[in-house]
Design goal:
The protein is of the alpha/beta class and about 270 residues long. The chain has a single domain, classed as Ureohydrolase domain (Arginase, Chain A). About 35% of the residues lie in helices and about 20% in strands. The protein has an 8-stranded parallel β-sheet, with helices on both faces. The longest helix is centred in the first third of the chain and has 18 residues. It is globular.
């Protein structure tokens, strides 16, 4: 079973806003997709799927919004073998991982992202979409952090990532030795849609050239088969920046494949 909820958070974007529309756009574009995945030979019609709706975050401070997301993620993880969050700015993933840790205290995180998001503050603000992973490291330990697809960050972030995380790399893959260390620990996968090249995901706040194709990203998701994935999010979809909904379509298909891959099998 999978439980999905939306987190339309859009308070701290450093360049272009609009991520609040992500959950709505991803749901809309999901209607254009078949329920069947020929790659996985699985169908959503055979999976128990609960859509818990969108959180009401309007008027909340970013700290309170993140805590509301944490509560929702914990609820979804308690109710289903896979909790899925639709974003929303990436700050929400701090809440998503907090909630997962309340249900699975040994959980680790895998972040697929163009940006490291590890600054201690951004423009004087301690909690933003550019700092959320620093908070994850401070709260839970950087040794629980695994990063792939990276191609942007300041010098201090790169030094921190290379010296303290379990794994940080520019390739969209995990080395076999890293997978071995993860073993069957619970895993939370956080995907910033800007890990894709802007040609494949123009509708995002901070597009960064030189990224992956959709095929490369979905192959990375498939490569996680065998891990105990208990939570997943797809963040930073900004439909106002992409009238053709290319970005939301990519996010919707990623969610479909993840639900079929992780929500239909594995430990309850």
């Amino acid at each position: 079973m999978a439980a999905i909820f939306g987190a339309p958070l859009d308070l701290t974007e450093s360049f272009r806003a609009g991520a609040r529309g992500g959950p709505r756009a991803v749901r809309y574009m999901s209607d254009s997709l078949e329920t069947y995945s020929p790659t996985l030979d699985r169908d959503l019609e055979d999976v128990a799927l609960a859509d818990l709706g969108d959180l009401e975050l309007k008027g909340l401070s970013v700290e309170r919004a993140v805590e509301s997301i944490a509560e929702a993620a914990a609820h979804a993880a308690s109710a289903a073998r896979l909790a899925v969050m639709l974003g929303g700015e990436h700050t929400g993933s701090l809440g998503g991982f907090r909630g997962i840790k309340r249900v699975y205290p040994e959980a680790v995180i895998i972040q697929a992202d163009a940006h490291l998001d590890m600054r201690p503050d951004y423009a004087g603000e301690p909690l933003t979409h550019a700092t959320w992973l620093h908070h994850v490291g401070e709260e839970f330990g950087f040794e629980h952090v695994h990063q792939v697809g990276l191609r942007s960050g300041d010098r201090a972030e790169w030094r921190l990532a290379r010296s303290r995380t379990a794994w940080s790399g520019t390739a969209l893959s995990l080395p076999p030795s890293v997978r071995e260390r993860i073993g069957q620990l619970p895993v939370y996968v956080s995907i910033d849609i800007d890990v894709l090249d802007p040609a494949h995901a123009p509708g995002t706040g901070c597009p960064e050239p030189g990224g992956a194709t959709f095929r490369e990203l979905v192959e990375f998701v498939y490569s996680l088969a065998g891990l105990h994935v208990v939570g997943l999010d797809v963040m930073e979809v900004s439909p106002e920046l992409d009238p053709a909904n290319i970005t939301a379509a990519a996010a919707a298909k990623l969610v479909r494949e993840a639900v079929l891959l992780f929500g239909a099998s594995g430990p309850s």
